[in-house]
Specification:
Elements: H1 2-11, H2 20-41
């Protein structure tokens, strides 16, 4: 959870959009970016022959 909160802080703590629909879209983009961080941290394992 702490790692995800750090990611949220890196993306900014305030919304830039003023319109509610655009704020929703901005949050959806932030969530998509945060979900993209997860595969970057997972190691790729390969069998050693």
């Amino acid at each position: 959870v702490e790692t995800k909160m750090h990611c949220v802080k890196l993306l900014g703590q305030r919304l830039m959009a003023r319109d509610f629909d655009r704020q929703v879209a901005e949050l959806q983009v932030r969530i998509a970016v945060m979900n993209g961080y997860t595969p970057l941290g997972i190691p790729v394992t390969e069998p050693v022959e």
